[in-house]
Amino acid sequence: MKYSEIVRVYDKLEHTTKKLEKRDILADFYKSVPPNELSLVVKFTLGFEDLGVANEFMKMTIAKSFGVRESDVVKKFKELGDLGKVTEFYSKHKRQTSLLKKELTLEKVYKNIKEFLSMSGKGSVGKKISIISELLSSASPMGAKYITRTLIGDMRIGVAEGIVRDAIAKAFDASVEDVENAYDMLTDYGEVARIAATNKSELKNAKIVLGRPLRVMLAERAKNLKEALDAFEHPCIETKYDGFRTQIHKDGDKVWIFSRRLENVTKQFPDLVELVKKHVKAKRCILEGETVAIDDKGRPLPFQKLSRRIQRKYDIEKMMKEIPIQINLFELIYIDGENYIKKPLRERWAMLKKIIKPLKGKFVLAEHIETKDYKKAEEFYKWSLSVGEEGVMVKNLDAIYRPGKRVGFWLKVKPIMDTLDLVIIGAEWGTGKRANVLGSYVLGIRTPSGFLPIGMMGSGFTDEQLKELTEKLKPLIVEEHGREVVIRSEIVVEVAYEEIQKSPNYESGYALRFPRLVRIRYDRAPNEASVIRDVEELYRIQRGRGKKK
Ligand code: AMP
After folding, report:
1. Where a domain ends, among 394, 413, 432?
2. Which residue, judged by its Cα, is nearest atom 5 of ligand 1?
3. What was the pLDDT predicted at 101?
4. Are residues 407 and 438 both part of a single domain?
5. Which of 244, 248, 288, 290 to mutate to test the pocket of ligand 1 (most atoms within 8 A of CB)?
6. What is the pLDDT of residues 196-208, one digit of tens each?
7. Do 264 and 368 belong together in one domain?
8. In whole angstroms, what is the distance from residue 529 CA to residue 451 CA?
9. Distance in angstroms between the alpha carbons of the first and the last residue of the chain
10. Residue 394: inside a domain, yes or no?
């Protein structure tokens, strides 16, 4: 397919804000695409998960591709605020025309992107630039704009998963439920679209594939233990561990470990892989649990320790000894050819219990009681807190597993004044000695209209944290105004605070008093951050308690 065909669609999508129109534009397009190209086309309309090229690299590449100075690119970027548009500008004004005679195809763009992603290490920068340059200089100006945006992971066409799902359903006259069901199993809209186009009755029968992660079910927050208990006819209560959501796939001797963001972290956890091989009495299965780091006495360690292990790509053996782990299992999704997703938790838990040979302190079931009695539940909650855990999860024993959904089947109960997971949306360069670090951060809360500011976090970090944050945020700067910068919403931080106040000064309508960093949450995506409803709820609870001071 010619790349210009998809560019035309991008342009249409960018020029409407109406969701139904976007759906229809996509549906028409999907219908017109030969089935064997659909998967790629869907990938390109949804954006690539593993892209997110640094702006700095892109500026360099634009300069090289069009034979201009990087400082000019930087200036243009300040003026236009969008590297895509900057690329388009230089492409329109380029001096030499492309040497490539053939028109750019979607396959060629994909091939180069894949090649680009596979390169790493010293000396690869030059090659990477030339791979992308080849694309930028052979695309039309508008095409070049979207290639840049694809690479930096910021398409600005307003297409989220829901729209792609609905467009696939509409294009192939399938029901949204069937499309969603297939996506729940396959976690890949490209493949779902291909099935919808070629054999749509198979959408219903889509099967779990071992080694391919499923999106994890998420929890809602309950106001308190009582409310959580009252929510379900048959509740169970489990300790809520503060660690790393882990999805384990086992297929005979082959084991995969996935994070809640569906990253494959098998390499980082050879110890867990061994535990699974020895302590699971099932040939093939998918399990979930919370992995925590423990000290030499088996006590849970702060999440930071574990986070070091997750990020580590080398010296794994050493890390394994330094930071031993324990897993607390709480889910079974699939076993020996049978899909358990639609079975109630009661059955999933019973089967999980059956197939685990626990190893004390290392490979165990989550602490779990089944009661509706408030006294017993409270005792369990207090006990969980007393052993240093975060709180409890109250779960509906009658409920199914909904991949990727926060549907209220699990309710978390933690002591209030809770922390919030916020997204850094802006920052300010420091002054004097700190001129090279971003010193204070604009925190964003997730709302239906995007991330809106809810406070400035300017203290409470160590020098190390400041450096680390600066390094992570620098490539995400999208605009600079003097010392202030606008940051692409990617980094989630857990923030503690003294109080929530109503405030006309921030767009979210609320302000956090004395926000301070608890930790950077690399394990969490922006779309998993706290939402404005959480803030409203916490505000209400806080008022109910009366001011403490
Ligand atoms: P939160 O991250 O606060 O939304 O809480 C949900 C997370 O708690 C899950 O994604 C798990 O990583 C973690 N968790 C810890 N213990 C449990 C448990 N017993 N059941 C389910 N999730 C748990």
Report:
1. 413
2. 219
3. 60
4. no
5. 290
6. 999 999 999 999 9
7. yes
8. 10
9. 66
10. yes
Which residues lie below 8 Å from residue 255, measured CB to CB, with a gap of 6+? 248, 249, 266, 273, 276, 277
CA of 233 to the centre of ligand 1 (A): 21
Task: Give me the active site residues, please.
Answer: 240
pLDDT band, very low/low/confident/very high, at 167 (cuts 50, 70, 90): very high
- Residue 262 Cα, ligand 1 centroid: separation in angstroms? 15
From the CA of 243, give the closest atom in ligand 1: 12
CB of 412 within 6 A of ligand 1: the answer is yes
* pLDDT recorded at residue 110: 96
Full residue range of the structural domain in which residue 267 is found? 224-413
- pLDDT, position 15: 95
Q: Around Cβ 351, how many Cβ atoms within 10 Å? A: 17
The pLDDT of residue 416: 59
User: Which uninterrupted H or E stretch holds 74?
Assistant: helix 70-80
DSSP labels for 229-275? HHH-SSEEEEEE--SEEEEEEEETTEEEEE-TT--B-GGG-HHHHHH
What CATH number does residue 429 fall under?
A: 2.40.50.140
Residue 245 CA, ligand 1 centroid: distance in Å: 7
